[in-house]
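During the second half of the funding period, the structural biology subgroup turned its attention to how the target accommodates small molecules. The most pressing case was 2-phosphoglycolic acid, which had performed well in the primary screen but for which no bound structure existed. We therefore specified the complex as follows and requested a full 3D prediction, including the ligand pose.
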Amino acid sequence: MKVIVCKNYDEMSAKAYEVMKEVLSSKDNAILGLATGSTPIGLYKEMIKDYKAGNVSYKNVSSVNLDEYIGQGVGDEQSYVEFMRNNLFNHVDIDLAKTDLPCGKAEDMQAECDRYNAKLASISVDIQVLGIGGNGHIGFNEPGTPFGSVTHVVDLTERTISDNARFFNSIEEVPTQAISMGIKNVMNAKKILLLASGTNKADAIYATVKGEVTETVPASILQLHPDCYIIVDEAAASKL
Ligand code: PGA
C-alpha cells in the first residue's frame, strides 16, 4: 500500500488526480472504475478542469461503477447514475454508452448481478476509485462480506444508512438495499485509488492500513493488492 497523507481535501483531490492522470495518459482507452459519495467529487472536479483545459480526452474511455441503490436509476435524483452524470460524465467528452453502473431498477436483480459480473469478467479495470465507509466498507460491501464476493444485493447497515442520510430529506428516505460490486471484483482492478477525508474516517483508515486483514474490515483486503494508493487528508490519517 502506498499511503499518502495530504493537508486537506483539496490537496487529497489534486494528488488523486495525479494518479488518475498517469493512467489516462498511458492509454487513450482506459477503463475507469468509479465511485460515488462526497469523497471523490474533488477528484472529478480536477478531471473536468483538466479536460476543459484541453489536456485530456475521454472519447475512448469507458467506465464501470461500484454500486447503485435498489429502486434508483436514470432520472432519479438520488440515484448514483445521476450522481455520475451530474458530477462527471456530463462535463467531459465520455460516451454515455461506454459508462455502466449496476441497475437498481432491474426487474430481476439476480439477472442484473449476473450481467454485471459477466461484464466485469470481460474487462480489465485500469484504476478503481474507492471511498471508504466509516465502518470500513468499500462499495457497499459491509463488514462481514466475504472477500470472495462478486456483484450482489446488499442490506445496508444502520451505520451506512445514517451516514448517507445527509443526502436525503429524512433517514426514512434512505434506501435500505443496494446492488454492489463484490470485493473480488474490486480487487481485480490493476490499480486501486482509495480516498478518505475527515475524522469520521480515521478509525476505518487505521484499521485498513494498520489492522489485520479481516472480513470485519472490508477495506483491509487492500493490504494484499499489488498496486494500491491510499490518499487521505490529515484528519483521516489522524489515528495512523
Ligand atoms: P462518502 O462515502 O464519500 O460520502 O463519505 C464513502 C463510502 O461510503 O464509501
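Two results from this model are relevant to the next phase. Residues 9-26 form the longest helix (18 residues). The helical segments are 9-26, 41-52, 80-87, 109-121, 158-164, 183-187, 202-210.
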